[in-house]
Amino acid sequence: MVRTRSFLLLFAVLLGLSASSARAQLIQIDGSSTVFPVTEAAAEEFQKARRGTVRVTVGIAGTGGGFKKFCRGETDISNASRPILKPEMDACKRAGIEYIELPVAFDALTVMVNPKNNWVTSMTVPELRKIWEPAAQGKITSWSQVRAGWPNAPLKLFGAGADSGTFDYFTEAIVGKAKSSRGDFTASEDDNVLVQGIANDRNALGFFGYAYYAENKDKLKAVSIDNGRGPVAPSEKTVLDGTYQPLSRPIYIYVSKKAADRKEVRDFVEFYMKNAPNLVKQVKYVPLPDRVYSMGLARLQKRKTGTAFAGHADVGVTIDDLLKREPKL
Predict the structure, then answer these.
(1) N or C end: fewer C-beta atoms under 10 angstroms in the chain?
(2) What is the pLDDT of residues 110-154, one digit of tens each?
(3) Model pTM score
(4) How far is CA 15 from CA 10, 263, 285, in A?
(5) Tens-digit pLDDT profile for residues 61-111
(6) Distance between CA atoms of 173 and 128, rounded to whole angstroms?
(7) What is the 3-state secondary structure (H, E, C) of 61-87?
(8) Sign of the alpha-carbon torsion through 275, 271, 82, 157
């Protein structure tokens, strides 16, 4: 009887250790749907390399939604299509969450119309502002109101939701103030919803990350952007030469310092940084120079915490800027 009880006790202890070990091997990530394709690709390759001993979950709550979870300590890594903002920095500080900021790629935030739209090939920044500024709500409702010669057809708008970093960046770059926008448009943090909306309406106009456009080129038409020097189409070349402005932007992951003390999280982030040049290309974003990924690895190894952006999303950040700026808490 005593031997039976001892065996059961030992079994329970081993079971408890096994359960604890299983929990330790779970890496939880949430945040930007723009960054999702890169992180999902890294997660799939990492899990294959680890033969299923580590499970990585990746959500798409949007950059803002992801930071809410991250700063409550509910996730290990947060995907972000803009730098962490001051209110989010404060929330993390109150919860004792320190973070390591790592740029992973450049995106060409893309404005799109339906392929059957035969009147738009390019738009100026003032035209986009006229459509998206708060004063346009209920007033700018037809294509003919945007440019003379365009048809008197209804303007159907699709854009990132308010919890999306893409929404923050687009409004900052086009309207001049983050989150300043008309509200009468179809909004979603899930870019696939926006793809379907634009693909099914000839009068649609919308915006989201380049990777979702590249995956759906047969359903969408990209609009060249004229920032005062002539129309420029989104592409790897125009991102790298700095001419796709003001919608070229770096995207990031934020790693919890506490989570980085766990071997499986540290191994995953190292795998991510070392394989990012190939993974980023696979999902149609623009890889950063190797020295930026080396800088990221050094930040991880030294546990260099904080942000290089002082709590706001700067427009027009270049690769040189990424190399020069030092993160601070």
Answers:
(1) N
(2) 999 999 999 999 999 999 999 999 999 999 999 999 999 999 999
(3) 0.83
(4) 8, 22, 44
(5) 999 999 999 999 999 999 999 999 999 999 999 999 999 999 999 999 999
(6) 10
(7) CHHHHHHHHHCCCCCCEEEECCCCCHH
(8) positive
Range list of H helices, 241-329 = 257-260, 263-282, 290-302, 319-324
C-alpha to C-alpha distance for 151 and 45, rounded to whole angstroms: 48
Tell me the C-alpha distance between 249 and 209, whole Å: 10
Best CA proximity match to 98, nearest among 254, 301, 251: 254
Instruction: Sheet with 122-124: list strands edge to edge.
Output: 122-124, 224-226, 231-232
Q: Cα torsion at 62, 67, 69, 70 (round to 10°)?
A: 130
d(CA 71, CA 232): 38
In Å, how far from its chain's centre is CA 6?
A: 52
